[in-house]
Amino acid sequence: MGVRVTPECDTLSSFVICDRPGIQTDAVTTFDGENYIVVWSDSRFIGYESRLVATRVTPQGVVLDTGFCIGATNDQGEYAPDIAFDNDQCLAIWYNVHEPFGVFGRFIDSSAQPQGPLIEIATASVNGNINPRLEFDNNNYLVVWADQRFEGTDFDIYGQRISPQGVLLGNKITIATGYEHQMYPDLTFDGNDFCVVWSENDNQIRGQWVSISGQLIGTNFLISDDTLYYRFRPRIATSNSHYCVCWSEIRSSDQDIYGTVDIQSSIEEVLPMSVSYQGPTIISGPLILPEGKECTVYDISGRTLAIDRLIPGVYFIEINGRIIQKVIKIR
């Protein structure tokens, strides 16, 4: 089902997108500038466990298609899709629950038709809660997923950059590992960098910044507290100043939604910069300023701060009257 809402989030009406026999699940959508492209996992096809299907929906709520199969032609069991638009076409991704296990993708044109071959993004060692997600950074895609790549007993978070031509860029990115499970990743692009979030050890929500070139920025950081409540399936979005991260949390017999907006996103550089100060741009401890110079630290709102009172956030260093560097404090 689908539902239209006003800008004030008042419900207009719901409408059927697909009510064929079988199970239709895991719907995701994006807007391609003309219509919404809706993708889901569909079990209505005889001889197949579940195939990935796409259709167009107009901004007025008119469903234009009966659903085009966009995945493989054999019964691989295609689940947990995601989709993003790169200003020309959409890339849909999913994971296979049968061999070959892993993350696959395919481009979709403005008619919701598949174009080009399947893209093998990553094969996995076993079937499991891979749950791939993707974002477009105005040049390339970043896909993230959870995987037991090295025959381990726990899941870790990996990433892969993909060009709009379907070319895998560079090696796979190891985003988060450790003996605990790292699962249910999500990500957003804030205009400068990606922020990837996931659930860890069943009770923490953690994050990691990743540059558009695929490099990790600093170390991963705690988003939730680490009290022994069950936390899972985080989701993240960004404004021009902060991230909003929300997740499911079980504190007693109830499952509720918690979240935070305490993490500041990166901002566009608009201030004159100089290389006269070569301190780090990402810090996880105290801020060390050069000796023998007149130094002032400003927050993102332009307020001056004492360096021993800095909390995680974005700061600007002024030395001898010139703003010369931005610093991101992650803990």
From TrEMBL:
It comes from the Bacteria. InterPro entries: Glyco_hydro_beta-prop_sf. SUPFAM superfamilies: Arabinanase/levansucrase/invertase. This is Secretion system C-terminal sorting domain-containing protein. The lineage of its organism: Bacteria, Bacteria division TA06.
